[in-house]
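Two-component system sensor histidine kinase YesM
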Amino acid sequence: MKHIIERMVSRVRKAGTVRTKLMLAFFIVATLPVGALSYFSFHQSSKVVNSQFGSYVIYAVDQLKLHVDGNFKQMDDMTGNILSYLIASSIIVGDEVPTTYEQYVEEKDFQNYIASLESTNIFKVAVITPSGRVIGNNFINAESLAASTSWTDISKYNNRHVLIHIPDYYPTPGNEYMISMVVPLNKSFGLPEGSRLLIDMKADTVLGLIKSFEKDTKSHLQITDASGAVLLQTTSDYVSQEDDKVWSRVLDTEGWVVEARVPYDTFYESSSVILRYSVFISALAILLGIIMASFYSIRFTMPIKKLAHSMRRFGEGDLLIRTPVKSSDELGFLSESFNKMTEQLVELVHEISRTEKLKSDAELKSLHYQINPHLLFNTLNSIQWKAKLARQPDIQKMLQHLIVVLDGSLNFKQTLLPLQKELDIAKHFIEIQRYRFEDTFTFRLEVQPELEDCLIPRMVLQPLLENIFFHGFQDGQGHIQMRIFEEKNILYMILEDDGVGVTPEHMKYIGSGQKVPGKRGGLGLRNVDERFKLHYGDAYGLSIESIRNQGTKVTLIWPKTTETHSLSKY
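Predicted structure tokens:
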């Protein structure tokens, strides 16, 4: 099912026109739910029907087994009662007709007792002596019994034997099946040695169950003995197949097997009916889906085709083309929007023509602004050479350091620099301050090894150092310590000084990135913090701790990286 859905979606995507896609989409939407419902309904219904059918067959077989086992138990109980009577009465029955009145009375009492055991189910009970004499049931013909093939077969067994057959030893021929049990009796029971007890039970109840089962399930049911010989079956002309559904139960008493065999087509007949209805419903859904898909696709694609034609004409340069608006629905809104868009595009073309001229003017101004840094560097170089010719080495060295610092601040091509280059610019700035304040301050730099190639935003250290000299120190007196180290791929720069510090009132403005009222400058710290956050995110940047008249501590945090494009957000 999943493969079918994926193939349908792929065909919709590959379809050429919108109309084809809509037809396929409507067709899938109309038929897929019905098809899926029919499939799952057939699957589940078939499963339930087949399960119920199988459960009924098993129930019928179990009922037949219980009934036959019950009949056998009843016959066994009757056999036990007769043997108990023989033992308790101590009668003696001969192989011949009684010659004395006493023998006649005992035998008559025994016959009356046997006759009392006969009931609706028990047809006849009798004792057959070795000479063929019948005791207990005058209805059995002794000559017919002696000539009976079934009795001859039974007489061969030396133990209890049960069979289902149509007896041929009654004077009135019948076609009713009987369950016959024959039990050998020894002479200890007062009977001639070799006598046998015969109990005939009607099998009409068993046959009724079999016929009812055959009628309900259109199947074949049979009872076989332990050797596999068929004792009773619904029909003798049934031909079994390998794909038959078979259920069987073994009787508890005789080891007989009750077997129900249902042809494959019969068992799945209900499923086939469900399948035919499911196919019919699916076919009807497909037909309706095709009709609906054709109707709606034409209705929706016609305005779209007209709009596509207008768009093609507009793309070819016909700026005055407009599409007609014939409805107030979404398609009408789309056509109206296209008309407005074409009008706006025409205005935009004119606007672009005006802005192109302004752009050219802006580029000329940009080229003009690029001249200013070159002019500044050339002028400083000229002053440097003048100082050298005038033998003023201090002025010459200050200009050398200033040129390096200005070159770093005016180089807009690189937003991220190796840490070593940024430290070099900071060192040049420190040297300029030494010429200014001489040896009134100390500067100590500690950098963890192997961090020189890590990247840092351009011109962030110099503004921090400049802030110390302009706001932290008095006449340049004090101590500055800068430490740079790494912890878990995070770089830390800690810049400490022992200057005048910052008042708590001013810290509120600095912490919020605002300019301190009445103070000159103050935007350098905010500029540094914003650049770190722009490059690396809000989790990184600058933090300040300060105690008035004790000093200030500035901490910078940023991720360790050596690729200029790896972490920059812009």
